[in-house]
Design a protein that fits this description.
This protein has 8 helices and no strands. The chain is mostly helical and 332 residues long. Residues 1-26, 280-332 are annotated as: Disordered. Residues 8-22, 281-292, 299-311 have a biased composition (Polar residues). Residues 323-332 have a biased composition (Pro residues).
Length: 332
């Protein structure tokens, strides 16, 4: 013991013993729980902060990487432009060609408003169709020997085996021509038959016409009588085809090289109103009778003029447009 220092017992320098009661233990547990909760929250906050930081860094890293790639691509050499193939214009269609057998100034068939060419076989009755088929095959039998032949034998056989039905349709066809009551129906009928023969006898279409006629004459002999009108209509359309195609080709050539001049319509004339001119009739000259007297003026001569003879008379002055006055009659 140091001198001057009061003596203190050992019990006063030691700590108080720890509380070991139940209340103390509960208090200590609450403190421990509080510390644990705040420790967990601190760890979570740290983890979230680190996660957000890493996500932000990753996003910034990818953004910088994309920008760098974009910058590098901008600095790269651009690809060469792709050359498009040249546009090839389709050549214009060739000009139409004059059909074989045609010539300049040739007269073509008339075209109807519906686009069909006028032939002898448009709008025919049943009997007319049968008789026109007979006419067409007759022309083929007479004119196709030099274009392959093969028509006349079958044509004659058809006339013999179907003579009755052909004559029946022919008689009905004649009655059609007689029905209007024309006194010259026979002449008109003969002219019509001549036009049909001339139509099928055109030399420019003979080769194509004969080729179709050989097919039709081979089939017509096997057609039943009641079916003959329907067959005749269809056969005539096929027989007319070479002529219609020729007309169309010729018209195309003509319109290409010789177009029709434009139609010039004169302007309408101005209407004028005629004003009648009234001409005055001339005044009627008076006729003097023997008893009428005419007054004659005499002019008195002045002193400074030459005196006229006393028996000299001066005629009266006439107004413009007046009729002349006859001379006075001599005194009786």
């Amino acid at each position: 013991m140091r001198p001057g220092v009061p003596h203190t017992p050992n019990s006063a320098l030691t700590h108080q013993p720890a509380t070991t009661s139940i209340e103390g233990r509960e208090r200590q547990g609450e403190i421990n729980h509080f510390c644990d909760v705040h420790l967990v929250r601190a760890k979570r906050a740290t983890t979230n902060y680190l996660g957000r930081t890493m996500t932000l860094r990753a996003n910034l890293g990818w953004g910088l990487l994309g920008g760098l790639a974009f910058a590098i691509s901008g600095c790269a050499t651009p690809p060469a432009p792709v050359e498009l193939p040249p546009i090839v214009m389709a050549p214009p269609p060739p000009p139409p060609v004059m059909p074989a057998g045609g010539y300049i100034g040739m007269k073509s068939a008339t075209k109807r408003p519906d686009g069909k060419y006028v032939t002898p076989n448009l709008d025919n009755t049943d009997q007319a169709a049968v008789w026109h088929l007979r006419n067409a095959l007759n022309v083929a039998a007479l004119g196709c020997d030099q274009a392959g032949g093969g028509v006349i034998e079958l044509y004659n056989a058809w006339l013999k085996t179907h003579a009755a039905v052909i004559d029946r349709y022919y008689q009905a066809y004649i009655r059609e021509w007689q029905a209007p009551g024309w006194w010259d129906w026979q002449r008109v009928y003969d002219d019509n038959q001549t036009r049909i023969y001339n139509f099928y006898a055109q030399p420019a279409m003979r080769s194509a016409f004969c080729a179709i006629a050989r097919e039709e004459v081979a089939k017509v002999g096997q057609v039943a009588d009641d079916d003959l009108p329907a067959f005749a209509r269809a056969a005539l359309l096929r027989l007319d085809r070479p002529f219609v195609e020729f007309y169309a080709a010729y018209d195309a050539w003509r319109d290409y090289y010789q177009p029709d001049p434009p139609l010039v319509v004169p302007p309408p004339m101005a209407q004028t109103t005629e004003i009648p001119v009234v001409v005055p009739s001339p005044s009627t000259a008076g006729t003097l009778s023997d008893n009428d007297s005419v007054a004659v003026e005499t002019e008195t001569p002045s002193a400074d003029t030459e005196t006229s003879p006393a028996d000299t008379e001066t005629p009266p002055a006439l107004a413009p447009g007046d009729a002349p006055i006859p001379a006075p009659l001599p005194p009786r």
